[in-house]
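Hey L., structure's done. Input below.
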Amino acid sequence: MNTQTYSYDSIQKGSLSFSFAASIFGKRIRDRVVRLYAWCRYVDDQIDDEGQPLEKKMVVLKNLAKQSFDTLVSVDIAPAIKAFRELRDEIKLPIEQPIDLLKGMSMDLCQQRYHTLQDLELYCYRVAGVVGLMMTHVMGINDRRAYQHAVDLGLAMQLTNICRDIVTDAKLGRIYLPETWLQDAGLDPLPEVLLDPNNRAALIPIVDLLLGRAEELYSSGDQGLKYLPIRCAIAVAIAREVYAAIGHEVLRLGPKAWDARTWIPFPKKLLLGFRGLLKVLKTSPCRFRNRQLRRSRGSETTLA
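Output:
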């Protein structure tokens, strides 16, 4: 199986939401997107084996980092690693960005706890915000004004994930909710506390706060759409709408949100896709002004 086939197979099996949004990209960008996704998914899967001790998982993570960043040609590497190397070299990806992602995965391995929202957002930056940054390189975005908006969108999506997966994560011994918020709600920051169905009602105000923060970050992400090529902007806007809808569904379900994994049915995804398209179309005046400004600057440079 070649790297491209492997990567497409990975995103189709791993995330219906991302696969749906990725289908909107043009082929060149889509091929890059799926390679980045495949690498992220592969690394996460390799270190997520519950049967392995922490020490062995850390060794695995270190070896994966070495394989990913090595410049030596090797045929004895996984397709996901090979796909990442191809992508890394093609788009000249800044090495510190995937390194930050691996640091975030290390925080997961150590089952690090987060005392405050600020602590949690550092983790979210490393595992998701930096993915937003890498996506700007994948899409060929050179306007630095887009970068913080890309980070914020990644943070928003990760906060949504955290709210959706509270019980699933607690089963793995992981707690992402800020400890101070749990304590203010009268809950001890312990996995068994989050797993107790009797405590779910007390989690709702915390989730409401966290998703409120996510909405602020989604709004920032929206502000970055105008810096993206139109087709890329549509794909990103659709992913944003679908993920935000997951958070809305969690709040709608209340304590029942953790009875099963919250997901968005395909007909609703189509509606959300239309909403994302409208959001991008509203950026047209700004796009026109930016295009005129670039042309003006180009003319000035030519005359000089």
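Residues 200-223 form the longest helix (24 residues). Residues 1-63+77-91 form one domain.

-- N.
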